[in-house]
């Protein structure tokens, strides 16, 4: 556990850089985390992030398959938005815990 | 900071030579996991592993109910080998296993193959085994990119952060 300044805000993050408390998240925080990973966020990204945050708040375990079937984005699209880390990077940028699913 | 530099995997190459439900799924879960981690992924299907990419068989894979000492009844009691030999039992057990996997969000094989290629993973069939089982490219899932010799597959497995995994 560590404290990190992201977009001018003191935020608690895990050793892997995931937010400890998803309520500390805002769009600027998302942009800065995405920048670190090397992703420039578009409206489509935010649509996916919003979906992930809603599901996570509802306590649902996310898998790449469930996101692909959400109607928000298909799996190919998800890889295009978050290359090399469709679930990991999107979760990190969405301010939700590290995914625990193997699929 | 760590004093030692980390050297993450860059490429994994899987060889799937067995065609039971658990063998094919072990390959697919590991391959899909690698794709999701951003690792370059190649899968080579050979011998009975070809069942996992053959259109006719891929969504109907079975698990062995005889000769499988780890097989248990739903309550956890040992599964009698004699019972496993009764016609229909293997099919019923296999369909139950597929249902349990579906509940864990594990997709059917055809969809799993699509997930792997959607992320840039590549699937190949072994030429020798294709000839032996008298199969053609059209018999295989559309997600399979080519039929290769083992030599051609090894050529793709270059790089010093590459691992070959035989499942």
TrEMBL record, chain B:
<dbReference type="GO" id="GO:0016491">
    <property type="term" value="F:oxidoreductase activity"/>
</dbReference>
<keyword id="KW-0560">Oxidoreductase</keyword>
<dbReference type="Pfam" id="PF13686">
    <property type="entry name" value="DrsE_2"/>
</dbReference>
<dbReference type="InterPro" id="IPR032836">
    <property type="entry name" value="DsrE2-like"/>
</dbReference>
<dbReference type="InterPro" id="IPR027396">
    <property type="entry name" value="DsrEFH-like"/>
</dbReference>
<protein>
    <submittedName>
        <fullName>NADH dehydrogenase</fullName>
        <ecNumber>1.6.99.3</ecNumber>
    </submittedName>
</protein>
